[in-house]
Fold this sequence. Notes:
Elements: E1 2-4, H1 17-33, E2 38-45, E3 48-56, E4 73-74, H2 79-92, H3 102-105, H4 116-120, H5 143-148, H6 165-179, H7 183-195, E5 212-214, E6 221-223, E7 239-240, H8 242-252, H9 262-268, E8 273-274, E9 284-286, E10 291-295, E11 298-307, E12 310-317, E13 323-328, H10 337-348, E14 369-373, E15 376-383, E16 386-389, E17 398-404, E18 407-410, E19 419-424, E20 430-435, E21 438-441
Amino acid sequence: MSSDLGTDTGTHTPLDPGTARHLHHLLATEQVRGRLPSVAAGIVRRGALAWSDAIGTLDGRADGVAADTNTQYRMGSITKTFVAVAVLRLRDAGRLDLSDRFEDHVPGSRLGGATIAQLLSHGGGVQAETNGPWWERTPGGDWDALVASPVGQRFRAGRRFHYTNVGFAALGELVARAYGTDWFDVVRRDLLAPLGMTRTTTRPDGKAAQGLAVHPFADVLLAEPEHDAGAMAPAGQLWTTVGDLARWAAFAGGDTGGVLSGDTLAEMYEPHTLVDDPGQPWTAAHGLGWQLWNVDGTRCAGHGGSMPGFLAGLRVDVESGDGVVVLTNSTTGLGPVAPELLKAFVEREPLPPEPWHASGDPTVLDLVGTWHWGPSVSTARVVGEHLVLGEPGRARGSRFARVGADEWVGLDGYHTGEPLRVLRAADGIPTHLDLASFRFTRTPYDPAADVPGGVDDGGWR
């Protein structure tokens, strides 16, 4: 057993020893409950590893080498998030559009009808797995061999969510062709190196856990194979450590280290396809390469991972940036310990509220107060740099960002991306707001405010 109880590598308040003991107990209990040969985990806050721990041994035997937070495990499908970021960097560089068909960049396959955005969000209808032997347990061939197998679509592109490993093999090939090199060379150069993730590799390197299967009816182990998946590698090839994956969780929480803009990361977290399980409420979706969860109003992003012999999880609270990573060397058995660890951490170590200070813009005070859209009533406020009309998250309430003199753009809900213009009288006093063609006036249906359709000459009666 290895433990970094109370480790504090950032600038936040050091972890309370009681919290560390509780998190250790949760992880140790999960190791026993799931019969996991070893399990390692970390909690991230404000871009730093606030807590980490590891339980068990690399080969699952009592006298084996103890796991620690520098032990490599396969991250499985968390690999897809790296490929997705590489694709969005291409978009941000103007080298592709997310509405481009895959065929436009990688011709010759049966996946060409799907757009890049649909492949990123598992909405392209592409088959889930390969047509050959179980690719996760057998060495893979190159892209041409995968295309010739042949792989294709199960559903019309855009029809529904259908998780696809083949789709991310395709995106890895797109990245490779865009740069004229292997997809991982791009990830290593543009993402891993700038973020200091030196222990993330395509094959085990240094101290690494043995991938194991645990017999369902006996406490015995079977070694799982490890290999190069070839063209399927972008779907789940990477190995990593708690320390490295914690840095990626910090990235996911907003500390992107300059390799991706905050706006693009936020775009990746917009739900594109819902995970529709019959009889269940919608709580999960996929954005552009990231899994998304909405539990009791808390939005989280991340990804799970599984390969024979390994399971992994990464999850961050989109609002706070707090995150958790978990890695184990077992084919089955890992329960929902990642969200449980994060929940326990947040409950015991709540983020202190940021002190209030005056930050409003006094030049827009003439916009605050009561406005009317027809007979309905809305209140305008200035909060920081934003004009807030109504209550964001309720009805059509939204924040607005200034984009010019008396020009604003909506940031939330119905009015996201929609223009708001301030119309003024000759003396400069605002007479009405024009919000996506709707008129907001200081009094209900003010006849002096150029209300579309006019105001009945008889007035209110």
